[in-house]
Amino acid sequence: MSNGKVMYHNANLINFPDMPDGDAFIVENGKFEKVGATEVLKKEINDSDELIDLQNKTVIPGLTDSHIHLLAYGSTKEQVVSLKEVRSMEELKSKVAQHIDRKALTSGQWVKGSGWNHDTFPDRKVPDRQDLDSISREHPIMLLRMCYHICSVNTKALEMAGITRDTPDPEGGKIDRDANGNPTGVLRETAMELVKQAIPPIVDKDEIKDLILSATEDLVSLGFTTVHTDDFGFVGDRQALLDAYKELNEQKKLPLQIVMQMIIHNPEDIDFYIENNLQSWNSMGRLMPGPIKILGDGSLGSRTAALHEPYSDDPETSGFMLMSEERLDAMIKKSFENGFDVAAHGIGDKTTETMLDLFKKYEHIYKPKNLRPSVIHSQIGSDSILRKYRDQQVIANVQPIFTHSDLHIAEDRIGSKRLKYSYCWKTYLDMGIPTVGSSDSPVESFNPFWNIYTAVARKDLEGNPKDGWIMEEALSLQEAMELFTLKPPMLSDECDTKGQLKEGYEANFTVLDKDPFKVDIEELKDFKAHATYFRGEKVYE
User: Is 334 helix (H, G, I), strand (E, B) or coil?
Assistant: First the structure.
């Protein structure tokens, strides 16, 4: 790249909320210096400046995913057997057995998998220890459901974790048991930690760096220039993770902006982030500390999301909060007092409402500090929740791509009355609720075009149902694209410097071969990035 100005011309520019007047732009020092017509901007450059013809390709603002698990994705890609495509118990068993053979795993080595969804199996049976014992009794096996809130393990894994009929359920978790009180091998929420503690954790800094780089390579290939990622709970050494990110940042090896979502499980966990001066939104180059991340409940698919009323298809349970309201209160208060924003995981209506009420309680602390708390997921709602979002201007961080899986189970799980206030992102926007988009990858794919497609078409990725699902909540293409371009800078209060093709803004942009506004919506699923530019630097082509 030239050290001077670079002018890009002959482009189809798409910006939100206002379309640019022109077909060209000049980039200098990582920012858009000018945006306008080619004949006008050519007067602004010298013979020594670089001139790039984009050949009428479409340019959009660089894409942002506001919540992923980057390390978990990297691990799934490099180390774990993916079960996303299995559609029966037999397929699951076969794929895990093949993984053991392919990796030549020796007796006693852990077998880790993720992505299964029993709701797509003919009998909808959750895998248990007997199913997994039929794969291997020599290898401890742990297979995470696609939501990452429930796992299945075999007898060997139970033994290595020391889980017996006498092991009590941990706070915020459940060990499923048979009629005789013996563990079935199905563990929910915090009960999964009993097994995870028996698995050698990732602590090697170089291994962590390799996983980060593997994941970021895929992210920029899809047009991303910023991701907000929740990684600290995935490693055995938080300092090793932080050092890995810092070193990659200093070496300028991060091809996009990394915003760290910093998970805690109790108020004392915040001390690590305080000691490392990681207060929210203080930029460190390509690395930025984001909010404190708090897990409030589980998932809809595993029926562990906390609801005010019982599940429609299982009246024996309403799900559960992962910790007491008193502990949540202390965590949120300490975060705000110490200059940290908060992003709270809330899927069930009980959890989301609890988080909104606690945010309201501490408005007097966080608002003067210009913090913008958010609820990640915000799936199951109510009229009361929507009004609180609107009145408090708390940010809803939603995943349209969840409809790919959830449209097949949501009404069964929660009934039509609650469904009216769930997955209702059009209503959010119409009510003026600040809303951003994300994928929660590797729970679902971080492919932004799939995410935008599901927001607009309200179908799964196979195109079902034919006429869409609850179409009154479908977004326009512009509204959907804004969730991943214009809106995410709200989280970090950077709307005046990021998210648009605009003079003075960071030169983050994605080049597409086609104009998304000039194709059938079904074609959007096949879109790829032609090139990705981060702060004026080409990071993918």
Answer: helix
Alpha carbons 476 and 464: distance in angstroms, whole number: 19
Neighbour-count burial of 315, counting CB atoms closer than 10 A to its CB (0-12 exposed, 13-18 middle, 19+ buried): exposed
| Residuewise pLDDT in 10s, the chain (541 residues) | 445 799 999 999 999 999 988 999 999 999 999 999 999 999 999 988 999 999 999 999 999 999 999 999 999 887 789 999 999 999 999 999 999 999 999 999 999 999 999 999 999 999 999 999 999 999 999 999 998 899 999 999 999 999 999 999 999 999 999 999 999 999 999 999 999 999 988 889 999 999 999 999 999 999 999 999 999 999 999 999 999 999 999 999 999 999 999 999 999 999 999 999 999 999 999 999 999 999 999 999 999 999 999 999 999 999 999 999 999 999 999 999 999 999 999 999 999 999 999 999 999 999 999 999 999 999 999 999 999 999 999 999 999 999 999 999 999 999 999 999 999 999 999 999 999 999 999 999 999 999 999 999 999 999 999 999 999 999 999 999 999 999 999 999 999 999 999 999 999 999 999 999 999 999 999 999 999 999 999 999 9
Tokens 């019982």 — which residue? Answer: 310
* Phi-psi sector, 432: left (phi>0), alpha (psi -120 to 50), beta: left
Nearest C-alpha neighbor of 458 from the set 472, 447, 474: 474
**Strand order through the sheet with 173-177:** 81-82, 111-116, 141-145, 150-153, 183-189, 173-177
Domains and CATH numbers, the chain: 70-203+291-498 (3.20.20.140)
Cα distance between residue 115 and residue 289, in whole Å: 29
> Which tokens sit at 55?
């050949």
Sort strands 81-82 and 111-116 into parallel, antiparallel or unpaired. Answer: parallel
Q: Could you write out the DSSP letters of every residue in 28-61?
A: ETTEEEEEE-HHHHGGG--TTSEEEE-TT-EEEE
pTM of the model as a whole: 0.92
Encoded amino acid at 275, one letter? E
- 96: nearest Cα among 130, 47, 65, 142: 142
> What's the rounded Cα separation, in Å, for the pair 306 and 348?
5
What is the C-alpha to C-alpha distance for residues 176 and 174, in angstroms, rounded to an integer?
6
